[in-house]
Amino acid sequence: MNNAEEKPKRKIIHIDMDAFYASVEQRDFPEFRGKPLAVGGSPDGRGVVATASYEARKFGVRSAMSSKTALQLCPHLLFTKPRFEAYKEVSQKIREIFSRYTDLIEPLSLDEAYLDVSEDKMNIGSAIDIAKAIKDAIKNELNLTASAGVSVNKFVAKIASDINKPDGLTFIGPSKIIPFMEALPVEKFFGVGKVTALKMKNLGLFYGSDLKKLSENEMQKHFGKTGKFFYQIVRGFDDRPVNANRISKSIGAEDTFENDIDDIEVLKKEIEKLSIIVYNRLNVKNKEGKTLTLKVKFSDFSQITRSYTFINYVTDQKVIFENAVELLNKIDLENKKIRLLGVTISNFYNEENDIITFRQLNLFDDFEEAD
User: Quick one: where is this thing mainly located (predicted)?
Assistant: First the structure.
């Protein structure tokens, strides 16, 4: 028997708030209720959407979408500026609700977290009942809705929370994990962006059952280090614990383009989009960093990074954008096309002793593909 199978099954809940920023705005401002709303961006077409209400999502408006595109999809779309202090305050209240049931809480952002309720503080026993209680408390006390996924590992719980949004609760028990993963479309796998999904489909890989046909070496050959992860998870293996002490050492965003780009003005617009996303994430995490890193992957899959360390901590989106563009300008782009850009901020201030810390980003850091 596999050693992992001999271990007691964990009880993992993934809680994901529904359209969090937009829902807080609609709760606090009646004029936004029931209307398509974008948090972030602007009606003049500049900037990008941070979060869209469900009314806006019906028109195809999504986070990280340019305001210009959002307006084309939904001409009567309303815009409002993010209020990060308000979101942080609500997030803290949500965290207090979580802590009634467990101390094993791993926040991923202001609006989502993993909870390990294998040993819950209120001795309820059932992870499903705990998830219901948390959802009810969020609705009754904060007038907001959340969706929950319940399973025995983090990966499946996270996917489950997205199945019946908004205000959903989905349980995927041990006996259901393998058939669930086999039937799951590859684009639904956490960590698979639009470009990776397209690559998988070009290889004839459309569902988890297709991924299972490849050996671990074949998976790594096609998809690098994440190939090993996909090989394991499609078989139901995910032994990552809920990490209550998870500390962000770098925050960033990247985008892989559907078509390789060599137009410098287009690249600058992409950097502007990424810089806004990174700036918003820094605000959400209440972080200030000194080191800016630009990641560039070329059409031949070669990759370089260029970094700049400021004297003071970065607190301005324009500074991120302008210096990332300056880093790009210093790279020889003659006869080269770019397939991926990434912007990250690291070298954070440590409030206790101002220790400078670095860590290589991986799939589960605060780093997401901006699609």
Answer: cytoplasm
Number of compact structural domains in the chain: 4
Looking at the structure, do residues 204 and 285 belong to the same domain, yes or no? no
| Residues across the chain | 371
227 with 354, same domain? no
Provide the 10 A C-beta neighbour count for residue 185.
14
pTM of the prediction? 0.73
Is the pLDDT at 125 greater than 80? The verdict is yes
What strands, in cross-sheet order, belong to the sheet with 338-348? 303-309, 289-298, 338-348, 250-261, 366-369
pLDDT per residue as tens digits for the range 132-164: 999 999 999 999 999 999 999 999 999 999 999
Question: Are 100 and 72 within one domain?
Answer: no
112 classed as catalytic = yes
Using DSSP bridges, classify how beta strands 78-80 and 105-109 pair: parallel, antiparallel or unpaired. unpaired
Place of tokens 């309720």: 117
Residue from 25, 112, 254, 270 carrying the catalytic annotation: 112
Identify whether the C-beta of residue 100 lies closer than 8 Å to the C-beta of residue 121: yes
**Token code pair at residue 276:** 């806004």
- State the binding site for Mg(2+): 16, 111
- Alpha-carbon distance of 17 to 60, in angstroms, equals 19
Residues 161 and 293 in one domain: no
Same domain, 71 and 121: no
CATH code: domain of residue 75:
3.40.1170.60
User: 261 with 357, same domain?
Assistant: yes
Short-list 142, 109, 141, 146, CA closest to 28: 142
Residue 127 CB neighbours (<10 A): 25
- Rounded Cα distance, 254 and 195, in Å: 12
**Whether the Cβ atoms of residue 231 and residue 216 lie closer than 8 Å to each other:** yes
Are residues 339 and 205 in contact, defined by beta-carbon separation less than 8 angstroms? no
